[in-house]
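Dear Dr. L.,

I hope this message finds you well. Following up on our conversation about the binding site, I have prepared a predicted three-dimensional model of the protein together with 2-acetamido-2-deoxy-beta-D-glucopyranose. For your records, I am including the exact sequence and ligand specification that went into the calculation, followed by the structure tokens. Please feel free to forward this to your student if that is useful.
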Amino acid sequence: MDLKLKNILPMFVYLLLASTSNAQSGVYDVTGANYGGKANSDITQALSKAWTDACASTSASKIVVPSGTYKFVGATFKGPCKAPIEFQLQGTVQAPEHIKELPKEDTWVAFERIDGLTLSGGGIFDGQGTTAWKQNDCHKNKNCKSKAVNLRFNFVTNSIVREITTKDSKNFHVNLLGCNNLAFQHFTVSAPKESVNTDGIHMGRSTEINITDTTIGTGDDCISIGHGTKQLHATNVTCGPGHGISIGSLGRTEDEEPVSGIFIKNCTISNTDNGVRIKTWPASPAKGTAVSDVHFEDIIMDNVKNPVVIDQEYCPHKLCTPEVSSKVKISNVSFKNIKGSSSGPVGVKLLCSGKLPCENVELSNIDLTYTGDKGSLTSECKHVKPTINNVAKPLACATSS
Ligand SMILES: *[C@@H]1O[C@H](CO)[C@@H](O)[C@H](O)[C@H]1NC(C)=O
Ligand SMILES: *[C@@H]1O[C@H](CO)[C@@H](O)[C@H](O)[C@H]1NC(C)=O
Ligand SMILES: *[C@@H]1O[C@H](CO)[C@@H](O)[C@H](O)[C@H]1NC(C)=O
Ligand SMILES: *[C@@H]1O[C@H](CO)[C@@H](O)[C@H](O)[C@H]1NC(C)=O
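The resulting structure of the complex is given below.
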């Protein structure tokens, strides 16, 4: 009896230790024996299986995609997971070139209903969008086909995305919906100026979003802030090429939530059509929403066509009735310390709604030089009486109505 126990006990202890140490290490390498992923081949199955295992782990886990290039047709990585989860992409994953090969036509990679996600590793999500851009007419056709977003975050909370690149998305690069406390750090968006509809980071119905030390070069808005965004801090973001940093467009549909607490600080915007902008459609539906507590501060404009803009007559492709005033109320907005160069003649353009004039708008320390050849720099204001500090006359609502 004694002898038997002596033999069994160490064995039992060994097994116990082995099983706990396995769970604690918690590393799920897609190229490991369990998953069989290989560079230069498709890792869709391997990655989906690794996600299922890691998400079921009761202690913190880490998925690793080592350096190398892999094909990936796409997936939605779903939570809730049992513990915090890190997705470490060291290599490059490539989307199929043709939309019909994706499992969902509007999504390549999505993270959904996850609390405590870290997406990191220095790797690249390559959307291979060149073919899709040629077919993309989403800016004027609601039933367009080219909708695949590189990275969707749906209902992701208390999470970080750092040292990740999204490249050549077929449509928006990043879309946030229903997220709370999500930080992007040292994030990179890269697509050519000519790519259509490739907004960098778009968000809606999300709160406490931080974007810091991030470089965005793309064919549409660098950051686009949709309705229901509250408490966004974007600091040290470099934007260009692209269409600048925009709130809106708002006021197009009935059920929009307000936008508030937007802090855009220490950013550089280069060679874009717009710098910092708030845009709303005229002819808003019955119940308009509101935009308030918006602050653009310490912004360098480098050859930007329309550096400072509030446009409540936003009506591209004539899809609205511009004569009907916007019902979106804009208040408590500041533009402070905005320096650099304007490539268009209108440095400051504040076109507010005739029905709901903008309130409490501040222009402080705005210093722009004109690099174009159409006369000299000017400014245009409508339905707004901003507080003006240290702004030279031509930029201080030179024409006003
Ligand atoms: C986001 O930024 C705000 C303001 O700078 C800061 O207080 C907060 O801790 C940041 N949150 C994260 C998750 O980085
Ligand atoms: C700003 O972000 C860039 C990366 O885009 C980084 O290299 C640089 O150090 C950051 N600057 C500051 C002051 O943090
Ligand atoms: C803004 O940028 C300047 C110069 O790069 C840097 O010294 C400062 O710390 C930055 N401020 C913030 C809030 O990042
Ligand atoms: C605008 O700011 C004023 C003064 O700080 C404040 O009383 C008011 O509630 C703010 N309005 C909105 C809509 O946030």
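In brief: The first strand starts at residue 27 and ends at 29.

With kind regards,
A. P.
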